[in-house]
């Protein structure tokens, strides 16, 4: 009997539906729930950590029996447990690579046989198109089981991530919530991005880290360490203003961005240079380059792609002439106030004082009220917030907390967050240097001068040394300093 068209279409629809269910089932098997116990650093009491806290996120298995997730999901983790879809058992995992700036991390299960039972996700080789449909998988708050939501790609841009990291970001309108972080977003059954953020003030606006960034990250950490992407950090401005363009001598056809402040003293760029091209890519007056027919991205997107041997080719317009230059690229800013990120601050205790390295987290966290205090005391933490190092090993050393209560502190005010300028007249270069200055002090008194409008602190050296053990015992502090600083303290002066 001849086959009817209706029956044929019905059979085809059933086959396609079955294939769709099979593909979805395969994806679900690749997605895992990640439960984390973490202990964040205490920047004001750097000898200790904050109380343990619990959180959860999502992850997805990739090639090599590795789990891909967000860096913020496992930040400061002391314990990580992974649970497969549909399973009751939880398995211990550890972080083997992390990129804080791009918010990606790789985990390994301690039991390799469990990892082998979880199928890896297939990755797309291309950026999705605008309005392309996506499906997001994860374990958001509000339930214990796997959640699946759908949406479309609404925007792709090159922007800032965390800790000054730069990268591509995909905006989607799928419903994403805390706990979705680290979960995969797929289109045509292939990974197009990893969920990492949402806007709390807006409905259904979430963000993905695209596969392009994921592949770059995995290639970076293949040697066991994360270096970050090469980037340009020069301060630039648009060239849209007519008066500015006339001042620069730009004709109507010349576009680009004008350099306001070159990055570093050895930069080939000068103030008022106009960067017109990065590699072969023309930069428009707002600082964007074209990528295909749909996308217009910040010119910095092309920096790591055009970079070779630490240089990126630029075309600049200077003094009425077009020039080809090779500009240095850098893997992060060399700031005098570093970012601790996923680490913990070092510290050293001497007498009634604790010393630590001043960081971005401390200088920024206090907000306007703290900044007003910095201004009132001429504290350099505010003035040097975005400064580069003036010499290679420069750090600002600060007193993060009150003076420990002890009889030798009588008459002194607390100097919380004050920066140490010198010890016995010797300028302090960094925290290990301060420890060595205290170690090598031999006079009856030790003078500690603080930067700004703070009183100088003078202690009898022997009294301070004797007070150290008393204070450690009284405060319940196990060690006088971080391991590397204790090595400095115990070393002989040679």
Outline:
With 494 residues, the chain is of the alpha+beta class.
Explain the overall architecture:
The protein has 494 residues and is of the alpha+beta class. The chain folds into four domains: 26-116, Beta Barrel (Thrombin, subunit H); 133-213, Beta Barrel (Thrombin, subunit H); 235-328, Pdz3 Domain (Roll), CATH 2.30.42; 347-490, N-terminal domain of MutM-like DNA repair proteins. Helices cover 21% and strands 33% of the residues. The chain contains eleven helices and 27 strands. The strands form five sheets. Strands 21, 22, 23, 24, 25, 26 and 27 form a seven-stranded antiparallel β-sheet that branches. Strands 1-2-3-6-5-4 form a six-stranded antiparallel beta barrel. A six-stranded antiparallel β-barrel has the order 7-8-9-12-11-10. α9 (431-440) packs parallel to α11 (483-490). The longest helix has 26 residues, at 5-30. Residues 1-24 form the signal peptide. It is an enzyme of class 3 (hydrolase). Pfam families: PDZ_3, Trypsin_2. Its EC number is 3.4.21.107.
Topology:
Elements (H helix, E strand, L loop, with lengths): L4 H26 E8 L14 E10 L3 E4 L7 E8 L5 E10 L4 E6 L2 H5 L16 E6 L8 E14 L5 E7 L11 E4 L2 E9 L7 E5 H10 L14 E4 L3 H7 L8 E5 L12 E5 L2 E2 L5 E4 L3 E4 L4 H4 L4 E8 L2 E8 L18 E4 L2 E5 L2 H6 L1 H11 L2 H4 L13 E3 L18 E6 L2 E2 L3 H10 L4 E6 L6 E4 H15 L7 H8 L4
Antiparallel strand pairs: 1-2, 1-4, 2-3, 3-6, 4-5, 5-6, 7-8, 7-10, 8-9, 9-12, 10-11, 11-12, 13-14, 14-15, 15-16, 15-19, 17-18, 19-20, 21-22, 22-23, 23-24, 24-25, 24-26, 26-27
